[in-house]
Amino acid sequence: MEAEKANQSLPRLGQPAPLFEAETTHGTIRLEDFKGSWLVFFSHPADFTPVCTTEFVGFAELAPEFKKRNVELLGLSIDSTFSHIAWVRNIEQNFGVKVPFPVVADLNKEVASLYGMIMPGESKTETSRCVFVIDPNGVLRAMIYYPLTTGRNMREILRLIDALQTTDKHGVATPANWQPGDKVIVPPPKTTEDAEARMHAGLETKDWYFSKKSL
């Protein structure tokens, strides 16, 4: 019962990501090992399944783009290290793609429970398709959950990283469908005096609360 409750709890945005130590295809790894880098930590339902295979191919193909942004990748499922090793070797043999990132073996569901990766309504024995973006200070910045039947869009995850890094660097927000190079949202003013000044600040302003600018 306690484990089931833990599975229902989710980590919170803006809080430190839950710490863990686990066996992976690259040896023992701790969350602290990624300090100083961004981390995309994602779970998949099971090894040797077709949708998960397409996702691993997708992540592997975009791994250099993530690396350019100081982002590490880390996968997880409730499978053994031996299963993970056999599967990533199978992916390389059948799809010609080498998986460069580690995959956590979580047979006891400890890490999955810490991160709320198991949705009993879908499956009590498989992790959902979760994505956690953790910043270089170990703070959880974004979460995305997909059902078992729907593969993720890796370029959207890359776009999310670009948006978060742009926000951190420039103190701005990003509008819907934003892509690098597009105009960004200037945070709205907090006083009536600032609201009046905003109208004459040389920004692309629709109204006092809605302004864009180029970086």
Order of helices and strands: HEEEHEHEHEEHEHEE
Based on secondary structure, the structural category is: alpha+beta
Helix content: 25-40%
Separation of the first and last Cα atoms? 51 Å
What's the architecture of the largest domain, going by CATH?
A: 3-Layer(aba) Sandwich
Rounded radius of gyration (Å): 20 Å
Into which percentage range does the β-strand content fall? 15-25%
Strand arrangement, major sheet: 5-4-3-6-7
Outline: elongated
CATH fold naming of the largest domain: Glutaredoxin
Integer count of domains: 2
Descriptive keywords:
215 residues, alpha+beta, Glutaredoxin, Antioxidant, Horf6, Chain A, domain 2, 5-stranded mixed β-sheet, 3-stranded antiparallel β-sheet, disordered N terminus
Q: Could you characterize the architecture of this molecule?
A:
By secondary structure, this protein is an alpha+beta fold. The protein has two domains: 2-152, Glutaredoxin (3-Layer(aba) Sandwich); 171-213, Antioxidant, Horf6, Chain A, domain 2, CATH 3.30.1020. The protein is 33% helix and 22% strand. The protein contains six helices and ten strands. The protein is elongated and about 65 Å long.
